[in-house]
Amino acid sequence: MGIGRRARIGALVTLAIIVGLVILIRLLLDPLAAHYTRLGLNKSDSTRGDFDRVHVTVFPPGYEIRRLKIVERRDVHWREPLFYAERVTATLDPHRLLHRELAVRVRVDEPKIIVTSRPGPSGKAAAGPPDLAPMLRQILPARMDRLEVRNGEFLFRDLAMPRDPEIWVHKIELAAENLATRRQLQGGQPTTLAASAELGRSGRVTLFVSTDPFARPLAFAGRLEERGWRVSELYDLLEPPTKLQAPKGTLDVFAAWKSEDGRISGAVKPLLKDVQVKPTDEGFGDKLKAWLVDTGLHLFSDRVPGRNAVATVVPIEGRLTDPNFQIWPTVFGVVRNAFVEGVASSFRRVPPDKAENKQGVISQAKTAVEKKAGPPKAQPSK
Amino acid sequence: MKLGVVCFLAALPLVGCGHTKTTEKPPEKPSAEEKAAPAAHESAKPPPPHPKKTPVVESPNDLLVPGAEDQIRAKLVDGGYLDDSKSKSLEGGLRKFQSAKDLPVTGMPDHETIRRMGLDPNKIFRRAERKTDAKP
């Protein structure tokens, strides 16, 4: 046997070993990734997770998980997942990896988040949902260049209130960019979040937030727009305390805010259009209450032909005095408060305040046109 | 009784004059200093495209450098995503473009959307001034 032939055989054997190793690694990668993912998902005391399959890619370096489901440990039948996603993919940017930068892009398809507020032993709402952040840190230990969400869904269910009202946000499309862990990696640009969604069966929501997470004190700004939410969808929230329903009309909420040098400023503008109020019972008192609310809404209408809008502007003011404020909880706190304030201020006078003493018709008419008097007051029955 | 009815009827037109109540302030009048120096306003230079601090803004369009909106509009019109190049809002066109490219349909410009249009995000979005931006 010649030396050349031996060398050729040696090279072929080496190549076969390398190919075999690559195939072995390739075959082992997915089960290994699945094993460690399962371990990570089940580390928490309050939640556990499951998935259909995990796939790891080498070129480009990436990770994909299908049908990820996270439930509370007490949900033994996996019926009410806190979080479900059809597909989650995380891909490392190979070019940035060559420059020793870990930049990951995450895409979440069809996620569904359900938050349920249950009554505690005292009848009040129990503590909020479990903290998923430690679990996410286990799964995604990298800086995020971009986060995409396609066709997401969020459901908030309040079991602590009568009728178990729900707020359903769906068709969520979200893009967050430049979530860096160090200022120098940010490239002088802010972290941004742009989102669009549908609220209930009729509303459309858009949200934009920009922030400099490294500014001290925190710097962030943004705007929220909600248009065309039919007030009839608020029946479960509105009816129990007021015994009134609003079968016709829409609610828009516009909010903008900015936090700079530790001071938050902005405004919320809720806008009721063509709202009609009716009693749910046929009692005279409820009819009178509904008439007063309806009259109040018409008194403050802008009288623009083709619409009948009632608006007010609620200022947002505040200071960030705690140096340990965390950026995202603070930002989402402001967004949530702006939305809740917008909805609440629209119905603040429902039912209307009751007058201390019964007023005559002329007195009521006179009060109604006074600027500082506010909406008409319900009259005491005696 | 009759007097009461007459007064009530007289008050009705006043009731009809109720208008939307807002706490919005009317536009402030220019101060004496502003009135005295209109020329200074007119000759004032537009703000630099890149501020000294990381820009934090309320609207996504406020993150665009001057002229960027026109570049985006031109790309959207070229691609057939926006019918009218004079259309005031880019939102509809951006939505169509993002939907066609399998991107989150937000209707707002972001880096990935701009990159997919064939534009350089670094030339479209404002950022904190770098040392290299300073003129020699």
How would you describe this structure to a colleague?
The complex is a heterodimer of chains A (382) and B (136). In chain A, 27% of the residues lie in helices and 39% in strands. Chain A has 382 residues and is of the alpha+beta class. Mean pLDDT of chain A is 77; it is low at 125-133. In chain A, strands 1, 2, 3, 4, 5, 6, 7, 8, 9, 10, 11, 12, 13 and 14 form a 14-stranded mixed beta sheet that branches. Chain A contains seven helices and 14 strands. Chain B is mainly α and 136 residues long. Chain B has helices at residues 2-15, 32-36, 38-43, 68-78, 91-100, 111-116, 121-124. The longest helix of chain B is centred in the N-terminal third of the chain and has 14 residues, at 2-15. Chain B is globular and about 40 Å long. Residues 1-44 of chain B have low confidence and may be disordered. Chains A and B meet through strand 6, strand 7, strand 8, strand 9 and strand 10 of A and helix 1 and helix 6 of B.
Topology:
The complex is a heterodimer of chains A (382) and B (136).
Chain A: H1 3-41, E1 47-50, E2 53-57, E3 62-72, E4 83-92, H2 94-98, E5 103-117, H3 133-139, E6 143-158, E7 166-179, E8 191-199, E9 203-212, E10 219-230, H4 235-242, E11 244-260, E12 263-279, H5 284-299, E13 309-311, E14 314-319, H6 327-346, H7 361-369
Parallel strand pairs in A: 5-6
Antiparallel strand pairs in A: 1-3, 2-3, 3-4, 4-5, 6-7, 7-8, 8-9, 9-10, 10-11, 11-12, 12-13, 12-14
Chain B: H1 2-15, H2 32-36, H3 38-43, H4 68-78, H5 91-100, H6 111-116, H7 121-124
